[in-house]
Amino acid sequence: MDKLHEMWENFQLNEEEGAAIDIEEEGIPKVLRKGDRSLISKIWSDRQIGKNIVETTMAKVWRLSKPAIFTKMGKNIFIITFATHADKNRVMSGRPRFFDGQMFVMKAFDGYTPLNKMSFDDVVLWVQFHNLPLFGMSRECGERLGSSLGVVEEVEVDGDDVGWSRFLRVKILLNLKKPLARGWTITLQGLKTWIPIQYEKLLRFCLQCGRIVHEEKGCTVPILMETSNRQFGSWLRAEPGGQRFRGSSQTWNSSLTKSSPKEKGKATMGW
């Protein structure tokens, strides 16, 4: 389909084809009413996933007031329409979402952009910044550190904008096709400090290049046969538990957070 779109864009249009047709906006309110309860989504998987399988599986996982309706729009691309706004908001607030271990990207309804122009390269993740000095555990510092990775949506701090804890927790919109940052070097009064970064609910990513999703050509980083030389590893995953206020005894689906690179000789996706 992508090749067809490229071909269409290279057409030399005649006078009739090039004359723009104004689309009346009278029907927009009807579409918007439905769109306001809908999300546009994509499952990042190489295999084709059927609508009925996704619809049935997610109904069991989400347990909404009524099952959401999935409309297939392309390979693993779906419009998800919910019965209520509360159901939609609940699903969005629980991001990142996954299907069979693959990233399930969801974004707000957009009725103006053609589907082939939409990007599903961004995902919301909670990111932990460790080893910060106490002066660095503030909303302002969280926004500064978070913006170096992507778009900051939230910094978890107390009412006084201070977030003293084992780490500073920031909710960030990240690009799936960029290597995961392993940490940053910061300076405070001339003193340099290495700040390790960990990511919550990080299921699969490439242990060779550090990307959650590859470009079409796959991983381009040379294969390292010795795992000890890899620059990315399971230590990028935050410990189960999440919020800084929780104890370490709480778990989050620990069976999904183990790293088991089984194959050598090709880029390995970490589990």
From TrEMBL:
<dbReference type="InterPro" id="IPR025836">
    <property type="entry name" value="Zn_knuckle_CX2CX4HX4C"/>
</dbReference>
<feature type="compositionally biased region" description="Polar residues">
    <location>
        <begin position="246"/>
        <end position="259"/>
    </location>
</feature>
<dbReference type="Pfam" id="PF14111">
    <property type="entry name" value="DUF4283"/>
</dbReference>
<feature type="compositionally biased region" description="Basic and acidic residues">
    <location>
        <begin position="260"/>
        <end position="271"/>
    </location>
</feature>
<dbReference type="InterPro" id="IPR025558">
    <property type="entry name" value="DUF4283"/>
</dbReference>
<dbReference type="Pfam" id="PF14392">
    <property type="entry name" value="zf-CCHC_4"/>
</dbReference>
<feature type="region of interest" description="Disordered">
    <location>
        <begin position="242"/>
        <end position="271"/>
    </location>
</feature>
<dbReference type="InterPro" id="IPR040256">
    <property type="entry name" value="At4g02000-like"/>
</dbReference>
<protein>
    <submittedName>
        <fullName>Uncharacterized protein LOC118347656</fullName>
    </submittedName>
</protein>
<feature type="domain" description="Zinc knuckle CX2CX4HX4C">
    <location>
        <begin position="189"/>
        <end position="220"/>
    </location>
</feature>
<feature type="domain" description="DUF4283">
    <location>
        <begin position="37"/>
        <end position="108"/>
    </location>
</feature>
